[in-house]
Design goal:
Helix content is 31%, strand content 19%. With 236 residues, the protein is α/β, with parallel strands linked by helices. The strands form two sheets. Strands 3-2-1-7-8-9 form a six-stranded parallel sheet, sandwiched between helices. A three-stranded antiparallel sheet has the order 5-4-6. Strand 7, helix 8 and strand 8 form a beta-alpha-beta unit. It is globular, with a radius of gyration of 18 Å. It binds 2'-O-acetyl adenosine-5-diphosphoribose.
Length: 236
């Protein structure tokens, strides 16, 4: 089977073997917190200290993890693929970015963090996004506006994921869609497979176990991402 335009969607499962915890543990909590206490605009308004502390810890933890074989396999594909290749990640870690720094991505390659990035902050007043490698205080003044505060550049529940137009255009034009390490519990990402199917694309799920939407895919490959992902893309 030959392919030209690829869209890959990744979720927390691709970073799990690097040591980044996934979201939906057996206890339904996210690192000991309820989602609504740390990942909503209302939580930030109510208790900015708790929310900033939560993201400060996760941001700091990034310095202790490294991209794994699955991130590297996608970077290798990006470097050699001659068609369009859009990599959409729901992950706010920077492991794809680091894997892609070397080798340099190919011409038709693009990476979108649809749920934002831990290493960036956003001015609440102007929306300007800037690099933010360190901690953010509960009331962190914005360098962009005297009346603005900084918040994590993270898409919280109830907010719109980023770059949806670009993603939907790529899905409508792709002939291969691969979803890696995502539970299929969060929309709109969970609906991408439908858009790809409507475009006539081959759809493949790679996950530890069948996800909630497994039945929507043409094929499912089940096992740890570091074992399954490199072989799948090497064979393209
Ligand atoms: P989840 O934690 O919901 O799901 C992770 C998936 O990865 C599960 O289906 C696991 O079976 C699978 N998995 C775990 N380890 C794996 C491994 N080594 N190899 C392959 N698969 C593995 O994470 P997401 O689907 O990414 O949003 O969650 C989606 C969104 O929910 C997140 O982006 C986040 C959260 O709310 C925001 O923060 C906006």
């Amino acid at each position: 089977m030959t392919h030209r335009n690829i869209v890959v969607l990744t979720g927390a499962g691709i970073s799990a073997e690097s040591g980044v915890p996934t979201f939906r543990g057996a206890d339904g909590l996210w690192e000991g917190h309820r989602f609504e206490d740390v990942a909503t605009p209302e939580a930030f308004a109510r208790d900015p200290e708790l929310v900033q502390r939560f993201y400060n810890l996760r941001r700091a933890a990034l310095s202790t993890v490294q991209p794994n074989a699955a991130h590297h396999a996608l970077a290798e594909l990006a470097a050699r693929w001659e068609g369009d290749f859009l990599l959409v990640t729901q992950n706010v870690d920077d492991l794809h970015d680091r894997a892609h720094a070397d080798p340099l991505p190919g011409m038709g390659f693009e990476l979108i963090h649809m749920h934002g990035e831990l290493l960036k902050g956003r001015c609440t007043r102007t929306g300007l996004v800037s690099d933010w490698p360190g901690d953010m205080a509960a009331h962190e003044p914005s360098p962009d506006h005297p009346d603005g505060w900084m918040r994590p550049h993270i898409v919280w529940f109830g907010e719109m994921p980023l770059h949806m137009d670009r993603i939907e255009r790529a899905l409508a034009a792709c002939d291969l869609f691969v979803s890696i390490g995502t539970s299929g519990a969060v929309y709109p990402a969970a609906g991408f497979v439908d858009l790809a199917r409507r475009a006539g694309a081959r759809t493949v799920e790679i996950n530890l176990e069948p996800s909630l939407g497994a039945g929507l895919f043409d094929e499912g490959l089940y096992g740890p991402a570091t074992e399954v992902v490199p072989g799948f893309f090497a064979a393209l």
